[in-house]
Specification:
This protein is 44% helix and 17% strand. It is an alpha/beta fold and 237 residues long.
Length: 237
């Protein structure tokens, strides 16, 4: 690879990381190529006003609209990418695209705030990814799984890659109409990465390794670390 060398946390296979990242990049590229801005009806009144408010020409607005549609199309791909990255951490396994109602599993004891337990986990990109219906469904799935003999003694985690600001934590996941249960918990990705690798900078290192893998496709000199630090703060750095 061109550019600087990757500084991945100990225990993460660099070849697997490179493979997974390139696969994700290829999915992004494919999704972008398939976007047809004319496929859906666009409100021309809103488009003109939005372009004017954003100080964009209509050509620039079209480019921005393509990017917006790409972001929407990529939500599932991004979630799967994070799931596969979690699966690279020591002790963790991704369940792939056919894992049922959980995304990853740690079969040996994992350090939690209530002791060390094996874990099943669902991975979500952001704290606001789920609506009330999907939240209730996931909670019910966790209850169901933890009631099975094969998951006796397990903890169920909802892992948020980007948690609410200032909410890097490991706490019971409380959902309306359900009581609190210590073994169904909410945790941020930074904590999962740190506990899995014993490296407090593990998530940052993984994040900063992505442009290194893609260095043949992007200009690393344009990778604005300060911008990312300001945007995501303690959730990554």
């Amino acid at each position: 690879m061109k550019g600087r060398a990757m500084d991945l946390p100990a225990g993460i296979d660099p070849d697997r990381f490179e493979l997974i990242t390139n696969q994700f990049f290829n999915k992004v590229t494919s999704a972008r190529e398939q976007i047809d801005i004319n496929k859906n009806v666009v409100d021309p009144f809103a488009a003109v006003i939005e372009a004017a408010a954003s100080n964009l020409s209509m050509i620039e607005w079209v480019r921005a609209e393509v990017d917006r549609q790409l972001q929407k199309a990529l939500s599932n791909h991004v979630g799967y990418y994070h799931q596969e990255l979690i699966g690279l951490l020591p002790g963790w396994e991704s369940t792939g695209t056919s894992g049922g109602n959980y995304d990853a599993i740690h079969r040996t004891p994992f350090q939690t705030n209530i002791g060390s337990y094996p874990v099943i986990a669902e991975v979500k990109n952001k704290h606001n990814t789920m609506n009330s219906s999907s939240t209730s469904k996931l909670r019910e799935n966790f209850i169901s799984y933890l009631g099975r003999p094969e998951f006796k003694g397990y903890v169920a985690y909802l892992i948020q890659i980007i948690p609410r600001p200032g909410r890097n934590t490991d706490i019971p996941w409380v959902v309306n109409r359900y009581g609190e249960w210590d073994k169904i918990r909410l945790i941020d990705a930074k904590t999962v990465y740190e506990r899995s690798t014993q490296d407090p900078d593990a998530l940052r290192k993984v994040f900063e390794a992505i442009p290194v893998v893609l260095s043949s496709k992007i200009d690393l000199s344009k990778w604005e670390h300060d911008l990312w630090r300001n945007l995501y703060g303690s959730s990554i750095y």
